[in-house]
Amino acid sequence: MIRLYNTLSKSKEVFEPVRPGKVGIYLCGPTVYKPSHIGHMVGPVIFDTIKRYLVHSGYDVTLVINITDVDDKLIAESQIRKIPMDAVAAEMTADYMRNLEAMGVDGVDYFPKATEHISNIIHFVKALIDKGFAYESQGDVYFDVQKFPEYGKLSHRTLTQMLGEGGATVERKQSSCDFALWKSAKAGEPSWDSPWGKGRPGWHIECSAMSCEILGETFDIHGGGLDLVFPHHENEVAQSECRHGKPMAKYWLHNGLMQASSEVGKLGGRNTRSAEEGDLDSQEAGKISKSKGSSAFHDLLKQFDPELIRFFILSSHYRRPIDYSFERLEQVGTSLEAFYRFFKRYHRITGDHFYSTATPHTRDEGDFDPQGDPLLVQVNDYRNKFFEAMDDDFNTGGAIGFLFDLLRVLNKYADEYDLDGSKNAPEPIVWPLVHGTTVLRELCLTLGLFRHEPEEKPAEKSDEIVHKLMELIIDLRAGARKNKDFATADKIRGTLAEVGITIEDRPGGTEWTRK
RNA sequence: GGCGCCGUAGCCAAACGGCUAAGGCAGCGGAUUGCAAAUCCGCGAUUUCCCGGUUCGAAUCCGGGCGGCGCCUCCA
What per-residue confidence (pLDDT) applies to A277? Predict the structure, then answer.
């Protein structure tokens, strides 16, 4: 039984899809006018993980992330750069897609673009006018919030509350809370023909139009950053529910925002700025991207492995805001190394690769009876706890804790049976480790973690000389150790450490790794 | 001003009324090792910002205070 927190009801609800067995998820994506920053990755990583988990739980899931490729900010950017708006959009969309790929977000079924749905949008707006929920005003079309008594139900505020403050001039609008469905074009701006003249869609309407087109009038989960609850999602609700006379989405999920902590300046790797500008850096990550190139996500990827960032995002609950900093990411990197080391150990023991271990496709398929085996009893226990955590509003942070527990019992088992040393351990001894590791992989995959072996750095791959030399050095050192010449052996190890090469003497032989 | 969120060990973080308050990083002991590294074992919150209340029982619920933060027309 999966429960999730619904912004609409401000409480956790039992998850029951609109259509049995099928789940439609719509996530508000970026406005593609600048390169993505880390904040843009949070939603996709979370909802990609949610999809993976729901699929593993047996659902047939469709995930949609929209691309806003027409918007005031895009127009402004195109004017500054003196290139067409669609060129800006294409460039930034490509950047976004590359980043998603790096993050392992590949469960997205549709990336609808606003400019590809203009006629749907126009139909939507027309329908709202016909039904009396919207009005045309000098080439613009506005939604009349007074016509929708439930306006404010998602963000939990009332219209009188909101109207209380604004007042002032509203120009073409009847009420200050009315919002634009269609905006008339000024000279030189990109535009499309419409019943109200040349113009472009407002921001909110695209999501109503595209989600309906792809997922239907009522779908299951609508997601987005906490900052979008009002006005964006509130307006989507108004538009869709007034047109269709039924709920737009059953569950509204909002993720906490990523914030840069004060040390973030170091992240750029070229922080020579003054202290006061450093303070500016402590603002929300997105705000930094508007002024500095260094917060672009593709730059962050030069310093940190994408898997590390994914792990970091998933290491706390999605509704919590997350602070990120250089130190924090490095810490996460340290904790991840234990997993990589275990994967290598597993390979040494079994000859099999963790990354190619076949796993059950669904939770039911993976259920097993430990049959009293002490290791598998523990493995099964952690597996169940992992699922319990995930069932409880996708508590990835809690779930990851059990991944570490699982790792510990597997290492302990390999220690106890001295599996590193004995090359040909009997099958009955190795088997529980193999099964336990399969479970570890199953759980990691539902989070989209450790799917592929991290790519070797290009330099490392091509550098045969280094490999040959290391072979020679390790051989010479082995000779020294045999002769109890530990001074020489330690000198070799110490000098290699200085250049970032770690030497580890194991029962099975000496291994080296380079940072 | 309005609406809402958060405050758990040095740092990050789980826990949603009930067994010893997960787990990670850092630290300290120990096993192991020629010494290391890795791994394992153990230690670290007598208690969850403070005060009061409800309850047999509260980190969890209620009230007040202090501190941090978000949204209030276009930021994921």
Answer: 29
β-pair type (A179-184, A140-143): antiparallel
Residue numbers in A 451-490, CB below 7 Å of strand B: 481, 486, 489-490
Residue A281, number of CB atoms within 10 A of its CB: 24
Q: What is the pLDDT of residues A139-160, one digit of tens each?
A: 999 999 989 999 999 998 888 7
Question: Phi, psi at residue A182, to the nearest 5°?
Answer: -145, 135
To which residue do tokens 């294409």 refer? A90
3-state secondary structure of A474: helix
Task: Please check whether strand B approaches the CB of A404 to within 7 Å.
Answer: yes
CA distance A486 to A480: 7
Indicate if CB(A335) is under 7 A from strand B.
Answer: yes
Task: Return chain A residues 367..396 having CB < 7 Å to nucleic acid strand B.
Answer: 389, 392-393, 395
Asked if residues A102 and A301 have their Cβ atoms less than 8 Å apart, the reply is yes
B/e letters for A315-344, b = 16+ CB within 10 Å, e = fewer, are: bbbbbeebbbbbebbeebbeebeebeebbe
Asked if residue A185 lies in contact with residue A200, where contact means CB atoms within 8 angstroms, the answer is yes
Chain B nucleotides near the protein (CB, 7 A) = 1-6, 11-16, 22-26, 33-41, 69-76
What ipTM goes with this model?
0.94
Query: How far is Cα A244 from Cα A236, in angstroms, rounded to an integer?
Result: 12
Global pTM reads 0.92
| Average model confidence (pLDDT) across chain A | 88
Rounded CA gap, A150 and A134, in Å? 16
State the first-to-last Cα distance of chain A, in angstroms, to the nearest integer: 43
The reply to whether the CB atom of residue A81 sits less than 7 A from any atom in nucleic acid chain B is no
Q: Give dist(CA A426, CA A429) in Å, integer.
A: 6
Rounded to the nearest 5°, which phi and psi values hold at A52? -55, -45
Beta bridge partners of A5: A12
Other CB atoms within a 10 A radius of the CB of residue A410 amount to: 22
